[in-house]
Amino acid sequence: MFALIDCNNFYVSCERLFNPGLRGRPVVVLSNNDGCFISRSEEAKAIGLGMGEPAFKCRELLQQHRVALYSANFPLYGDLSARVMRTLADFAPDIEIYSIDECFLDLSGFGRFDLDRYARQIRQTVEKHTGIPVSIGIGATKTLAKAASRMAKKNASLGGVSLLRTDAGIRDALSGMAVEHIWGIGRRYGALLHRHRIHTALDFAAAPAPWVRRNLHITGARVQEELNGRSCLPLELVRPPKQSICTSRSFGTPVIAKEELQHAVVHFASKCAFKLRREESRASLVTVFACTSPFAPKEKRYWGTETLSLPAPSNDTLLLLKAATLALERLYRRGYEYKKAGVILSGIGSVSEPQQTTLSLFDTDPLPEKQGRAASLMEALDALNFRYGPGTLRLASDCSSGWKQRQEKLSPAYTTRWSDIIEVKP
DNA sequence: TCTGGGGTCCTAGGACCC
DNA sequence: TCTGGGGTCCTAGGACCC
């Protein structure tokens, strides 16, 4: 058996934790740039604020119901997530942290326990230790556990826990679930399935397997197997190293000048390089993109992208930055209002992998020595920024000007930044 | 005026190899 | 005139997840 533990309206719950006055009120957390709703309290859902909906379209509703708005505060959410996960890790030998607000526990071998009671105990403990409310679904496969947790969340009478064990219980649950709400079946496949008169999760479980394999490919076939109680998705106990690393942002106000766009790209490239080193990896491809608003009139739209291949995989900020700057140089077109840009690193391998050294014919600097110096420099950079806070030491070209994003409703980083919670008297 | 960010996996098709 | 067979690797695009 697997359990899926899912934090309820996670970001909103984090904000409420430090602001109990928000309980019972409609609360939403906005995406970067204060754009869309990315977390909503039950009260906010009830008045019709949709997930991913742009906030400006709901202005009246927001005022009318005095909805509390928050800018996304990821340092806070990340830290609270870690606390929840640490608490959960005590309840099972194997745990997979699936996302910032969800994790799977392996409950095989817990057959002798009263799983329902155990789940309620987990719920209470998490609430007591961290203040975050969670829902728990239990089933024979990850997909069934997911379905169960959805039920636990939707159906208040279950008290936050749903256990799918008997055939009758499973059939009952699946028959009440629209096919597009199955984990791994999204809007597009949902629409396709409805056109073929497959409306519920139970319909999908019973659909002809070859047809599913043909039309929804191997991923869909696995989902079907899992719904029928045959586990195809094992727990991932160690997070596999990332295959790509991306840093991108929308701008608070459009950027026109190349220099300003460059500042942003340099900043994103530095962040990417840092994430890469944290992963103990190296990348061989650097992609830069910059684009106008997709909502701009057609003739004012532009989507520029450029990928450069490095002579050898690297995680050196200086090198990655040089490549990113060159890429931007190539894709930049004068006269557009850029609304978003980003840097993507790919072709990623571990630093422990033997590096094929491509020596340049014209390189007079002996390569290993050069790399050694670069590595020491990066080590010092990361150590200082860890000790004194991100951005303490950075490249001169990494200056944020102009392209700043909007974050008008930002709460303090209560658990990770002293300066946010204490006033330092001079 | 204002519309997020960061990932994964799979497939088809083309280029290329012997 | 007739023009193979068996591979690999890479990329773009489409689907999905939170």
TrEMBL record:
It is an enzyme of class 2 (transferase). The keyword Transcription does not apply. One of its GO terms (cellular component) is cytosol. InterPro entries: DNA/RNA_pol_sf (IPR043502), DNA_pol_Y-fam_little_finger (IPR017961), DNA_polymerase-Y (IPR050116), DUF4113 (IPR025188), Rev_trsase/Diguanyl_cyclase (IPR043128), UmuC (IPR001126). One of its GO terms (biological process) is SOS response. Coiled coil: none annotated. GO terms for molecular function: damaged DNA binding; DNA-directed DNA polymerase activity. Its EC number is 2.7.7.7. Pfam families: DUF4113, IMS, IMS_C. Belongs to the DNA polymerase type-Y family. This is DNA-directed DNA polymerase. It comes from Chlorobium ferrooxidans DSM 13031.
